[in-house]
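Hi V.,

Quick status before I head out on leave. The structure for the redesign project is tokenized and pasted below; the design run finished overnight.
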């Protein structure tokens, strides 16, 4: 089970976008794009809940935000529940990328 301590904050869901369950995520990194195939965790009621970004479900809106569509979030009402929540990625995954390759 993933805990809050196992994750790093990469953004915040600031508002909904449209009627189909899309949200706006503000962030100061490109980690959402780089890890679009990996689950992100959304902090709901103090616990990180895994969500997957839908196929072709991330659009760069500007240099600080993305329009994101999550699998199984298909209505405005479902998306509204996520507004204000932090978006997290697993620290272990981020640390693996940061480690330099060692050639023996």
């Amino acid at each position: 089970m993933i805990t809050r301590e196992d994750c790093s904050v990469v953004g915040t869901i600031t508002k909904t976008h449209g009627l189909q369950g899309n949200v706006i995520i503000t962030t100061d990194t490109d980690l959402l794009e780089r890890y679009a195939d990996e689950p992100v965790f959304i902090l709901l009621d103090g616990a990180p809940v895994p969500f997957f970004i839908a196929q072709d479900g991330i659009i760069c809106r500007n240099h600080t935000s993305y329009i994101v569509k999550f699998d199984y979030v298909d209505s405005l009402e479902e998306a509204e529940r996520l507004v204000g929540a932090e978006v997290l990625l697993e620290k272990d995954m981020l640390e693996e990328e940061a480690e330099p390759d060692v050639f023996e």
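Above is the designed sequence. The beta strands are 7-17, 22-26, 40-44, 47-51, 53-62, 65-70, 86-90.

G. will cover questions while I'm gone.

Best,
W.
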